[in-house]
Amino acid sequence: MSILLILNYAVAIFFAVHAVRTGRQMYWIMILLIFPLLGSLVYFFAEYLPEVRHSGVARKGARVVKSIVDPNRELREARLGFERTPTVDNRSRLAEALLARGDYDEAVQEFQACASGPYAKDVKFRRGLARAQLLAGRHAAAAATLEALLADSPRDAGSDAALWLAQALTQVDETRALAAFDHASHVHNTTETQAAYGIFLASLGRDAQARPLLEGVVHNARVGTASSRELNRESIDQARAALKVVESRGG
Questions:
Q1: Measured between alpha carbons, how far is 102 from 109 in angstroms, rounded to an integer?
Q2: pTM of this structure
Q3: Quick count: other Cβ atoms within 10 Å of Cβ 3?
Q4: pLDDT tens per residue, range 207-219
Q5: Fewer CB within 10 Å of terminal CB in the chain, N or C?
Q6: How far apart are CA 11 and CA 138, in angstroms?
C-alpha cells in the first residue's frame, strides 16, 4: 500500500472521528469511508473549516499572530483614540491596553482616573483598577479596592474578585489571606484558585493542607482536556513545581 493511500485513509479517519465527536450526521461517516479522498475534501470545506474559523482557538491564534507582527498596535490605537476623544470608555480601553502590554503602573493611573467622579462605583473600572494594582505589586491598595468593591457590589463584582483579594492579602495579612482563600475556594473553585491556595499554604509550611490541593490540580490536568490544560497552563506548572517542593520536604 502506497504512502499516499495510507495518508488518504488517515485523513478520512481523522474527519470521521471528528464527525462522531461533534455529532455530525451519520452519512458523513459513510461518505468518508466509501470515498475517502473526495469525502475528506468535501467534509473539510463544508464542516471542518467553518467550525475552525469560528472557534476560540482560531480567534486566539489570529490574535497571537497580530501581536507578533505588530505588538504595539492595540496600545497605539487606544492611546490615539483617547487623545482624539478623551471619553471614559476610551480611557478604559487605553488602561486595558497598558495592562496587556505590562505597563502596570501607568494602567493603575488610567484606571484610577476612570474609577473616579461619577464612575467611582463603576464595577468594570474598579475591577480593572484592582487587577492593575495587583499586577503592579500594590497589594495593600489592591486589597482595599477589592474589599470595597465586594462590599458595594457583591453580586456584580465577579467570583474571581474573591481570588484576587486572597492573592492581594498574601502580602498584607496571612490570617486574612487564609480566610479569603477559603472563601474563594467555595465561590470560585477553579484550577487557578486551587493552585494559588495550595501554593500559599506550601509557602507557610502547611504541607499537609497544601498537598491535596496541589495533587488535585496536577491530577485534573492529567485527565482533563487539552483546551483546559492550555487555559490553565501557568497555574498547573506552578502547582506542579510547588508539589515537588512539598514532596521533597516529606509533606
A1: 13
A2: 0.73
A3: 7
A4: 999 999 999 999 9
A5: N
A6: 53
